[in-house]
Amino acid sequence: MTASVPHRPQPRRVLGALALLLALAVAVGACAGLPQSGPVTSADTELPAGSEVSLFVPGPSPGAEPEEIVQGFLDAVTAGFGDDFGVARDFLAGPAVEDWRPGESTQIHVSSAPRVERTATGAVEVSVDAVATVDERGRYIQAPVDAVFDAEMSLARNAAGEWRIVDLPNGILLPEASFSLAYSSTYLHFLTPDDQYFVLETRWFPRENLATAATNALLAGPSEWLEPGVRTAAPSGTRLRVDSVPVGTDGVATVDLTSAVLEAEVNDRALLRAQIEATLATAGDVREVRLAVGQQAFDTGSSLPELSVYPYSTPSSWLAIADGELMQVSEGEATMHPGADLLGDELSSPATGYGEDPPSVVIDGGDNLVTVPDFQSPPSVLVEGRDLLAPSIDRFGWIWTISQEEDQDPQMIAIQATGERVDITAPWLAEGEVLALRISRDGSRAGLIREVAGEAVVEVAAVQRDTEGRPSQLADPVAVAQRLEDPSDLAWVGPTTLAVLATSDLEPSRAVHTVPLGAPHAALPVVEGAVRITAGRGDTSLLVTTEEGTIFERNGATWRAAHVGLEDPALPG
Q1: Strand pairing category for 433-439 and 445-452
Q2: By Cβ atoms counted within 10 A, which residue in 262, 307, 402, 463 is the most buried?
Q3: Domains and CATH numbers, the chain
């Protein structure tokens, strides 16, 4: 249920913390299982009827005291998804029976008994240790460490003299263990502005009617934070004609749309089908999608585009630094880069792009962003700045960095190896220092670590581009990984997942954490002295540099030392 506001029982309160976070796009640890491209496939995430989600809980007991009524109500809520909270409403009276909206939010708490106490006014207060909130749009918003959900309920006696709840907040409280049974994550598939790739946003919905909820959410569009970086092929006003997406026993889902969809151009019709099919492939036992308008088949053309959610493979070679000079690592062997003689010996933070013959750059002396020479061209200085941020290169070849000029607001820069430059609009840069920046493989999002008011936070922001891929703005960021502390570096490892080097309340040593956007994060084994990370596809591609100059790579569930005397490894991006 919607708590008053989650708070910490310490002087530093987190009033409004959850409201500030608009949910993000992403997965639990199942990111690696997402289809990378191709037609609709099945992901069996629905539980069969009569499964453990449908629990029996009794209604109010005669003569129960207010605290017992509230506790019984909370128990009935936990089992309420099978009967649309019918038993839970038996604990209510008066207008609350009809006015209470359980679907407005789900407050997830640790799986221990809620604290239920009478207040001085006779009301009953419920308090639980917060984990996360799922809002009515299905967006998972992690609560900070030590946050608490509070809810107050008023009770009165009914005509039979029995206590009933007559006033309560909307929403529900749900233990973490029950949440994993009652809810399923799904991935809404939006489009990059050039229609080349899918951009995923994670949502959570009750397993009952999962296909309907996912389709409604897709047609309603992306979250506000993501909207500037993506598009959808659905014309404005496109909705389900009836609020239902029935899925037959043969796995065929019927999606009947309103006539607004007829405004879509031919190409957009095929793209919209691809969006719906890919979304429903992650939303239950759907094997085929039939589109209709007013119960008549909706023609979207004979061929569908194959859109990847995480383009490009991990290359066999990568860049690194040894004693200030540029190295190339291939097949496990580190050698001097062919162009190293033309560069300085105070190099750091190399970066390389995607595909064949990608651009590569390196920072020289901390203040110059320089192209890495090849056999055809010498090095050139692209940016002269101050304390340049370690660069990131997107799929369009734009090289991103930030210059921290003295007595000036930081300037975010995107520049091509040819020298074509864009000064990126991002007014929020003046609010704090950016410590790390990585552009996602689809080019629509930036992952960043920013220090604001003395505290480092992990954030994501949408990249606004034209249809040719030219960037113009980094939209307002939203915080993720609220339960991590002191983050220092990050990298993308999947379509909705970051790897973040940080500490946490559960892991005080600095470790790599996999952080799905809009889902719980998890820690990998600690690499002692870790200072920097880079990655390609999946957490098995991670490279971790230590302060002693050793690069570790994944070795099954652990790490192994792969290179000594190297630092700043750079995989594409």
Answers
A1: antiparallel
A2: 463
A3: 17-30+41-182 (no CATH), 184-297 (no CATH), 317-570 (2.120.10.30)
